[in-house]
Amino acid sequence: MAGLIGLLSFDKIWNINKFLYYGLVGLQHRGYSQSGISLLSEGGIIKSMKSKVAPEDLEVGELEGWAGIGYTGTSGYPIQVDGLSVAIDGVLSDPDSFVSFLQKDPKEAIRSTRFPFSFVAITKEGKLMAYRDHLGLKPLSLGGFGFDMAIVASEMTSMNVIGGEFRREMKPGELVIIDRFNVKSVQVREPEKNYCSIEYIYQARIDSFVNENDIYSLRLRIGEKLAEEFPIDADTVIGVPDTALPFAVGYSRKTGIPLDLGFTRTGSPIRTMLASDDFTKVVGIQLKLNPIKSAVFNKRMILIDDSMVTGTTLKNTVFNLRRLGAKEVHILIGSPKLSNKCPYGVAVPEEKELIAANLPDSEIAKVIGADSIHWLSLEGLYSAIGHRALCIGCMTGKYPTKW
């Protein structure tokens, strides 16, 4: 998973480094272990910076330019080859060769690749290029900053951070080329819509709009579906921040069970699904999920989370809730079971690491210390989203492409 952004000002007097920086910070929920930017300055000079730090820790003050791109995720992007710099969201077997080919013939370079991916790129001639994969797995949106700047970003949230305006989502298989005088759109590959189900459930921010869906409203519907499928007698409903909060709101509205804010945060937000090691996961849990005793003491709780990968996060969370006096803890998961790895770059690991792929529900409840645990059904997911044009490979083992 990754966050991409591209900016191009229509007047070269602009220095966009701060716009690029803060726009990238607005995407770090999509991945934060590595980040980088490239800026185009007068004379066709592209300067890049890459670092194994979150976007908010990048020091971009010495870089200047009137156009540029940014990346946040798990790989070392952008890649710069001569007069072209590219950042990619997706998995490519040989990204350096792709970037070289892209410089010669963008359309053929895209058509020659087998795996779905999206990218943003800046050329020394002052062109901003963006492509969205033909399956629609990796989102990209177009926007602007008044009449002064064009913006391409993985999510509209990045535009909102810098005061930009969202215009539209890019179509699957669409290539957009922007310069100071023109915007050109080319349908390079035919769309085969298989939107990533994890985008809806977990990846996108709750204030975002992805694949023609308002994410907050969609997650309310998921909470309502959980209430229909698993009505549980309890004293309070609590959602795990931030992703699952709308699930809890929807469940509470549907059942009438009171909603409580069960946790407060310490420090910067950490997405434990993206953490690379167990220590970071545990520390991340403590920073992200510090329970509020008065919200849980002596109560029968329904705890709602967006997904379950290894079970580490929920096990630690349930332990802390019990320690603070929770009488019962019933867990609801706002997605079907994750039982297969993702070959497209989403942080769903090998089957041997996925708790739902290896244990029955009763054993999982024992392992994490819960009274019960239930997952949203696949039909419930389809109903909440409103269509079936989804990649559900991590849930079923059936993928839209061979790999």
Automatic annotation (TrEMBL):
Gene3D superfamilies: 3.40.50.2020, Glutamine Phosphoribosylpyrophosphate, subunit 1, domain 1 (3.60.20.10). It catalyses: 5-phospho-beta-D-ribosylamine + L-glutamate + diphosphate = 5-phospho-alpha-D-ribose 1-diphosphate + L-glutamine + H2O. Binds 1 [4Fe-4S] cluster per subunit. Binds 1 Mg(2+) ion per subunit. [4Fe-4S] cluster binds at residues 196, 342, 391, 394. One of its GO terms (molecular function) is iron-sulfur cluster binding. SUPFAM superfamilies: N-terminal nucleophile aminohydrolases (Ntn hydrolases), PRTase-like. In the C-terminal section; belongs to the purine/pyrimidine phosphoribosyltransferase family. This is Amidophosphoribosyltransferase. It comes from Sulfuracidifex metallicus DSM 6482 = JCM 9184. The lineage of its organism: Archaea, Thermoproteota, Thermoprotei, Sulfolobales, Sulfolobaceae.
